Amino acid sequence: MSVAWLSAVCANDIDTVGGKAASLGELTSHGLPIPDGFAVTAPAYRRFITETEIAEELFDAVDVDVEDSRALAEAEQRARTLILDAPWPEDIRADVLAAFDDLGSESVVAVRSSATAEDLPDASFAGQQDTYLNVTREDVLDRIKRCWASLFTQRAIYYRDEQGFEHSEVDIAVVVQKMVHAEKSGVLFTSHPSTGAAEMTVEAAWGLGEAVVSGAVSPDHYTYDRDADAVDDVTVSTKKVMHVRDTETGETTETAVPEAKQDQRVLTDGELHDLNDVGDLVESHYGQPQDVEWAISEGDIYLLQSRPITTIDEESEARDDGSHATGTVDGQDDGVLVDGLGASPGTTAGTVRVVGSLDQLDKVNQGDIIVTEMTTPDMVPAMKRAGALVTDEGGMTSHAAIVSRELGLPAVVGCETATATLTDDQLVSIDGDRGVVTDGQQAPASDTDGQQSAAASSAPAAKPMTATDIKVNVSIPEAAERAASTGADGVGLLRMEHMVLSTNETPAHYVANHGEAAFVSTLTDGMRTVAEAFYPRPVRIRTLDAPTDEFRQLEGGTDEPVEHNPMLGYRGIRRSLDEPETFRLQLRAFRKLYEMGYDNVELLFPLVVDGDDVRQARAQMEAVGIDPDQRDWGVMVETPASALCAEELCDAGVDFVSFGTNDLTQYTLAVDRNNGAVADRYDALHPAVVRLIRETIATCRERGVATSICGQAASKPAMIRELVEAGITSVSVNVDAVHDAQQEAKRVEQHLILDAVRE
Ligand code: PEP
Ligand code: MG
């Protein structure tokens, strides 16, 4: 059987038609309005590779060392050529075309991969294969083959190898489904996403749904009281753009919404009522609240996709369990040995290991408490084993604090006298919330390492629906999985310098010793770990920005220039532009990821001052073969000059700007961010800083450029309030602050909606 109609398949048919087709079939058979379509079955793919006798050659071609990027790229190419060049078995070809004609030979369809390996642990795997929209009869056979070939992209080969799956055992089916030429579309949550209350939330905009899903448009927002069966709340947004099918090219394009419709309400009360009926059916079918993509065409509702949503209630229960499990030392100030800043939350007890130099890291065992002056990137492996961290130096944005938060390791930093006061083998308790270290065991010791226990307590991820994207900052690739499990909308900042610092060599030293290719691979590997963990959520990666004093501590550091004030010196884009060879190696790492299919990677340039910096950086992208018009890229706004030149930055073609308030504050207020003597004057919410940010947001909004904040201040509720009000597109916070930021953004957005309604 080469073809199976969706109306004839059900959830049990995954092996034959893949996960996507099986779930669409299941919904169709329960009376839900799914666009008509059929699946080209997995056995059809199997027969194709067997009867054309390409199977053996195909699996040989992809059996390569996945760490060898060239071999990986060749494997993808070879597999694709084999599949695209092999002739169709005549009967399969005839079956597919006959089924297409049953849909209507003039139909336009979506062709989507439907992997049969749905039981793989990482759901993103299923999304790795291709999708083609607006396909006509003429192209359908080619697109089906391309879906088959997408089983062998570099990402897919690499991923299967890492997970230990045999290439020869994974099958693929393809869904061919009539396109819905939606006049209006959007997403809905069948129940309240936070409380699980019987309230449907709907976002709607004109045209095809991609505009809402991708965030290109601010949709209308509706709530529907399911108990009262009545519309509860309506907020109409100005919808400037819509996605439509270009009738000439068949492509989906973005166009302006006619002025008269921009402020017009998208959904009538009747349509909301009907959507609620559909939502009811889906929710009762699955027995849990669903996140549904829908479309309306010629008055009919269609359901395009449905996924379960996790409710906040479950999450709070999980959190409560977590805090009971780790115990608490609240209210027990007796026996405080040292105190400092609570830099990473959590409580635990363990044995002290004072680490004076790197060669002492070996003495740190599972669950021990590392006590040190200050951490360096080489300590990360030991930190992953440890139960907690205590340092003499450092503030909330120090390496120790950032990495501990990402690893979920309780940490107290800046204790000044910890290495002098605490001694090896001493049993102590750590409270990373209050910033105290007490004598003896006042909290249970972590039975595994801190990273794992904290990761468990932060799951499952539940995400309130916010118009503002809430993303997460990631500093070390090791923390990617944990960061991804927060349910954040992507990574707002991944600093490339952390990957370089962890090699313990300056870039120049590394390249001299190991060669350019090895340097590029080191960067690609770290970046890929994060891009993979979040795929398809966007991951914004920043090119190098380490001040010379940080590089000086590495091997090769003696060659670094000696600067009177490194913060105002040779760092960020200015250094990259002055050293184009190293800059191009960084950019080559991006190009490699794009070639591997990581289209979720976005490029970010640090410490730009004006449009000239941006134009030069853009030229370097082009020089290594990255097309700036095809990729999402942007710049940090962390100097007052760049904020004041926002118009110029937009004109240079950026897709987004991201506020680096750590630097923007120090440069606006003339307060060195690392100088304790002026720390009391460091205020990221100073009116001057906020004004620069607000004005930049306004300029960018007028020009359709997205705005984001990724400095430490993004984790402050007051900053979130300011910026959500100002219309910022996304906020990126530390991993431990994602949940609170989601709640705060939601609260502010609801206030804005209420204010608008009351006016
Ligand atoms: C910032 O300046 O706010 C920022 C995020 O960059 P960094 O902390 O790496 O300078
Ligand atoms: Mg900065």
Question: Care to describe what's here?
Answer:
The chain is of the alpha/beta class and 759 residues long. It folds into four domains: 3-178, 2-Layer Sandwich (Dna Ligase, domain 1); 184-312, D-amino Acid Aminotransferase, Chain A, domain 1 (2-Layer Sandwich); 336-456, Phosphohistidine domain (Glucose Oxidase, domain 1, 3-Layer(bba) Sandwich); 460-758, Phosphoenolpyruvate-binding domains (TIM Barrel, Alpha-Beta Barrel). The strands form five sheets. Strands 14-21-20-16-17-18-19-15 form an eight-stranded mixed sheet. An eight-stranded parallel β-barrel has the order 22-23-24-25-26-27-28-29, surrounded by four helices. Strands 9-8-7-6-12-13 form a six-stranded antiparallel sheet. Helix 16 (480-484) links the parallel strand 22 and strand 23. Helix 3 runs antiparallel to helix 4 (69-85) and helix 11 (312-326) packs antiparallel against helix 15 (450-458). The longest helix has 21 residues, at 738-758. It binds phosphoenolpyruvate (PEP) and magnesium ion (MG). Phosphoenolpyruvate binds next to strand 23 and helix 26. Pathway: Carbohydrate biosynthesis; gluconeogenesis. InterPro entries: ATP_grasp_subdomain_1, PEP-util_enz_mobile_dom, PEP_synth, PEP_util_AS, PEP_util_C, PEP_util_CS, Phosphohistidine_dom_sf, PPDK_AMP/ATP-bd. Its EC number is 2.7.9.2.
